[in-house]
Design brief:
Elements lengths: L2 H12 L6 E9 L9 E9 L5 H12 L18 E4 L2 E4 L14 E4 L6 E3 L2 E2 L2 H9 L19 H5 L18 H5 L6 H11 L7 H8 L13 H5 L6 H14 L3
């Protein structure tokens, strides 16, 4: 590299990054080893508004306070592990841009609701995953192992295509006011994953899943608030899927 090019690069590096803004992130902190109560803590960052909330959390953890605790994995909206409440709405931190949050005001970040808070932005996901396991989220068939794939028409596949998109982030379930008040409710995500197999033409356990969801803590607890549909980062029509399961329960005996 020529000296002229090096001098230009050094000069550009010394110039202030005009694209950066100062944003305040107000994070609800909780450490059971320190206090039984959660409290809010503010962090001021110089950050590009085109960055994501996850990037801001990384900056805080890596440069300011290493004790900040949150979940994240793929960072691309596939694993669903970084669901949290951002400015009062359930979102994925890896898909939420700072510029879309009115960064002139403090950006609030807290754990999702309805599940036991363990530390900072981390909740106990076991009740959520237990409800998921309870609806038998796998293909059930009879007979011998097939010698070739189980064929299905494009029309039959389309019947449950929407509910195959679930990434188990819990954004829908933890946005549901019924779930907030009663953790025994299966919740939208479990019903969505039951729907995916109930309407699969290759599956033979639809009736069994319907009976599971016919329980007092099952599908009838839904009050059609639409919070779940609005919270879903994959755009699944959650409320519609729940209504289709209800309809299947009503019509199955006819």
């Amino acid at each position: 590299m020529s000296s002229a090019v090096m001098d230009k690069a050094e000069a550009e590096a010394k110039q202030p990054a005009s694209h950066l803004i100062t944003a305040t992130f107000r994070i609800r902190r909780f450490n059971p080893e320190v206090s039984e109560e959660a409290s809010w803590e503010d962090f001021q960052l110089e950050i590009d508004p085109k960055e994501r909330v996850l990037d801001a959390l990384h900056q805080i953890k890596w440069e300011i306070d290493g004790t900040l605790t949150f979940r994240r994995s793929c960072a691309h909206g596939i694993c669903g592990s970084d669901a949290m409440r951002i400015n009062g709405r359930n979102r994925l931190a890896c898909k939420t841009l700072i510029k879309d949050l009115n960064p002139d005001q403090p950006i609030t970040v807290e754990a999702i609701k309805g599940l036991t808070l363990l530390k900072d932005l981390v909740v106990d996901m076991e009740p959520f995953f237990q409800a998921y396991r309870d609806v038998m989220p796998f293909l059930v068939t009879s007979g011998n192992e097939p010698t070739r794939e189980r064929l299905q028409s494009a029309e039959d596949r389309e019947r449950f295509d929407d509910t195959t998109k679930c990434i188990l982030c819990a954004a829908c379930t933890s946005s549901c006011p019924v779930f907030w008040n009663d953790g025994q409710y299966f919740g939208p995500a479990a019903i969505v994953n039951a729907h995916r197999f109930i309407f699969d033409s290759r599956d033979e356990a639809g009736e069994q899943r319907l009976e599971i969801l016919n329980d007092k803590d099952g599908v009838w607890r839904c009050r059609t608030v639409f919070n779940c549909t609005e919270a879903c980062p994959r755009g699944i029509e959650v409320t519609k899927a729940i209504q289709e399961v209800k309809r299947a329960l009503i019509t199955r005996r006819f």
